[in-house]
């Protein structure tokens, strides 16, 4: 038995010994996540509604509302949905709406890049309620985030204690890009399904874990990667002898069916079986090594990138470190709120780079502090985007991709033991959350 396996077995035994104290009472396990969820909703909904209703949309580069799927501009939702859901349906939200309305058979092939469970639920909910699909998506995201917080409180309490679980929920809910949990995006649904699948696997309930893992693998491509933490937990529970694996290994392998089912469905609708991967080129993605991706981010580079009209030699701009100095030289409201400055901040790549560096630093520190299955859960989804960078931004969407990777936030919670550091960071992170939520609501790029 390896030292890592022994360490995790010890963690499991300690978690069982803690028992009731780890997760607290049933009332607390519901009330605390509900309180965190409510604070998160207030910090995202109020700024988004105010910015969307009374602010000015992005005008730089002539995009704004045309930044959605195929440049289409959606009709106003009207009523309360226009105040609540409409500010959160931007960017990829327009794509999920398009899939919910049209399916995969009609229109352009780029829709195949968006995995099906979330738009299927949007379509189903719209059909039975009469609400707009994006309104249904908004409701799904927010309910799923509450469910995810409840599940995470239980799961983290099993592996650590209630204090770490509570702190993790705050770190996650107040993270600067956590508004994506409120938006018409898959982050909330995937976090709920993945964490619930891991909780089931952690308890040895492999049929439940496998089914939830399959649903997660139909929600986004990284759901398939649940096979890594599943494998760690399975070997811990059943050892290395294949004779002990059956029949539990069958449901443990269910996430592998996610890409197969989606590929079969795409093919049945006139697309290629692997269209979900092939259509990524429409976001200017290309293949590279992780170190090449980082080098392109820091210093810029030239790459052959497939685009409309064929393969083109593209220049990838490096990080723009200039705007912080320019901000210090122009500390006035007019400059800070100008469309040019806000656009430059969003396109500078600084946020993407910093989040990526911090994420990998937390992985390294977590090798000694986190259960091995936590590390197995976060490493593959962090590596894959570095293998498929975009010429628009090599680390595009990384501040969003890290959100469902809850062990990163557990690691932050472990490091933030003292109030002297935790409270200022919570205030600063909440401030950034409000600012970035407003950026998103007014069609500026965030992640």
UniProtKB/TrEMBL annotation:
User: What membrane topology does this protein have?
Assistant: Multi-pass membrane protein
Q: Name one GO cellular component term.
A: mannosyltransferase complex
What Gene Ontology molecular-function terms does this entry list? alpha-1,6-mannosyltransferase activity; GPI mannosyltransferase activity
* Intracellular or extracellular location(s): Endoplasmic reticulum membrane
Family annotation (Pfam families): Mannosyl_trans2
Claim: Lipid metabolism is one of the keywords in the record: no
Transmembrane helix keyword on record:
yes
GO BP:
GPI anchor biosynthetic process
Give the residue spans that cross the bilayer.
21-43, 136-156, 168-186, 206-233, 245-266, 349-367, 372-392, 398-416, 423-445
Task: Give the matching InterPro entries.
Answer: PIG-V/Gpi18
User: Which keywords describe this protein according to UniProt?
Assistant: Endoplasmic reticulum, Glycosyltransferase, GPI-anchor biosynthesis, Membrane, Transferase, Transmembrane, Transmembrane helix
List the pathway annotation: Glycolipid biosynthesis; glycosylphosphatidylinositol-anchor biosynthesis
Q: Which residues form the signal peptide?
A: none
UniProt protein name? Predicted integral membrane protein
